[in-house]
Amino acid sequence: MQATPTFHNLPLQKGSFTTLVEALDYAARGETGYNFYSGRGELCSVLPYANLQVEARSLAKKMLSIGLSRGSRVALIADTHPDFVVFFFACQYAGLTPVPLPAVIQLNGRQEYVRQLGRLLDDCQAKVALATDEFMPFLTEAADDLMIPFIGSLQDVKNLPDSAEDLQPKGPKELAYLQYTSGSTRFPRGVMITQKAVCHNLQIIIQHGVKVRTGDRAVSWLPFYHDMGLIGLLLVPMACQLSVDFLRTRDFAMRPRLWLKLLSENKGTISFSPPFGYDLVARRLRDGDVEAYDLRSWRVAGAGAEIIRPQTLARFAERLAPAGFDEQAFLACYGMAECSLAVTFGSLEDGLKIDHVNSDQLLEHGRAIPVPPAGDQEEYRSTSFVNCGVLMPDYDFEIRDSEGHTLPERQCGALFLRGASLMSGYFGNLKLTREVLSEDGWFNTGDIAYRIGSEIVITGRAKDMIIINGRNIWPQDIEYIAECQDEIRTGDAMAFFVHNSQGEELAVMMVECRISEQQPRLDLINRLSRQIRQELGIDCVIELVPRGTLTRTTSGKPSRHATKNIYLQKIATDSQMS
Amino acid sequence: MKEHDDVLQKILEILAVTLPEGGPEIKADLDLIDDLGLDSMKVLEILESLEDSFDISIPMNVMPGVRTANDLARELQKIIKSE
């Protein structure tokens, strides 16, 4: 078996397409394509774009025989596997809408995973659900009482008869896919992205973000059920005819060094990761490993999807400098599923641009006053942020205060965006759509930012979500677990996140509780900790407090921010007393 | 062919070096997450060691049904037999 080549004769077409089918039809004229590697880093299957086109068309004919109306949702367990890719493109040719679903299973997590799949299948009203053989048992169980007309594997679809209908691929105004945001698992939000919107985003990434050129090759371990993996590393390379080498996310997490091995052996030039991936490599690298790698070809080391902490990436760069890794290859970017993917990019070959600002001014007045990067001096404390770069073409942005007024340079506020890559809305949820997307096309990102000229610096999330080990954790999901207990009433638990003394994010939940005896209190705390660990995979500090402690807004909504301040004051007092 | 007890012994050895000292005594029927406090990253480190020790690949769909070291030993033995 041989991987698809990096160099080939088809002229480079930089993503100027109006549908995904148009892009694949062009790429299929060359020799490049997708390559899949095993958990030991060995090539285990090769899918050139030419074969993908043939297989997807043939599968599309079979799928049409099920008799679905145009645009019906086809749920796909998005394992890093050629079958998923064939399913995804078969939908494009058949005029159906693929919906990638998570392919992540935790230890002892069967029940929770099946429940999550069930909620998503239900939310998108899937008419077909497909998976690889490995995931079929979970899918079948999740779909148990949902009345989905067709559930099966690649072979099951192949066994269907060919439809007599001609293929009518999706047009520019039709949906390209439905992407569930990595939001709360209880309250899923399916982002609707049209062909035109995603193709626009692919084009700006190719031409302005990464500036793809002949000789580029991508390497990725990012999951296909996440926007950066699906759009950034599956669709972008296809839309500019590059070969990609894929590693499963779990295999990367188990053996992070495989990422470096693939980049070295295949002379990869483009790869992206959340900061957590760079951190994992730096921590798991063994002395003496570094000589085995040659990272001189790696010209774009993208970092995004969570707040970038400069120290994390600096440690990675330092450790891998002997292997030829160039710190200037780091490329900060910012984006989200609601904008297809990319919103801003830093400038290429410049490395990370850090903005140092006065911490007190930032905390008290939301002003980002630049200071020399001297660290903590007598007169002031400083905070460092990574500059996420300039807005991509055809986007407008505004930074607004809580009353909706546009703020001047270096003043923090909510980041609003408008542009051609934006979603059409959340599937089947007009109310939620209206909350974030205005009639005149402005989208509230939910992130807090300030601008320096046309460059954007993200300082935090207005949403209460945090990311632990690459997983998005929502306070609502932690609180829900508390509210399911007999002793706790709805609205009596509030969860939020604080930094521990090592600067790591830690989940805390304060629960109003009437129980006064010691043993039942301990039992409740233990039960909550256990269930949170089981369902969300994180540790959470549980504090039982008297009634009336938690802060609510005048309309009775939880104020997590104010409650967090109460908690911080409480631990400060406790530590003074001890 | 490896017997269940040999596989279990190896799992317990790996747990002993992976888990921090001073934790609860490691036993075959304890819940790996609830009782022994394994987080998702530690689980992956342990799987890596096990794959290397037995020269096997552990499929992704094995993990959701595993609660204790005993469960893990039983699953691994099936994989070792089939490879």
From TrEMBL, chain A:
UniProt keyword annotations, A-Z:
Ligase
What species does this protein belong to?
A: Desulfopila aestuarii DSM 18488
What sequence ranges are listed for the domain AMP-dependent synthetase/ligase? 49-427
Q: Which InterPro entries match?
A: AMP-bd_C_sf (IPR045851), AMP-dep_synth/lig_dom (IPR000873), ANL_N_sf (IPR042099), FAAL/FAAC (IPR040097)
Similarity section: Belongs to the ATP-dependent AMP-binding enzyme family.
What taxonomic lineage is listed for the species of origin? Bacteria, Pseudomonadati, Thermodesulfobacteriota, Desulfobulbia, Desulfobulbales
Its name, as the record gives it, is Fatty-acyl-CoA synthase
What's an example of a GO molecular-function annotation for this chain? Answer: adenylyltransferase activity
Q: Does the keyword Lyase apply?
A: no
UniProtKB/TrEMBL annotation, chain B:
Asked if the keyword Phosphoprotein belongs to this entry, the reply reads yes
InterPro entries referenced in this protein's UniProt entry, alphabetically:
ACP-like_sf, PP-bd_ACP, Ppantetheine_attach_site
| UniProt xrefs under Gene3D superfamilies | ACP-like (1.10.1200.10)
Q: Does the keyword Phosphoprotein apply?
A: yes
Superkingdom of the organism of origin: Bacteria
Q: Which UniProt keywords apply?
A: Phosphopantetheine, Phosphoprotein
Question: Where does the Carrier domain lie?
Answer: 5-80
The protein's name is Acyl carrier protein
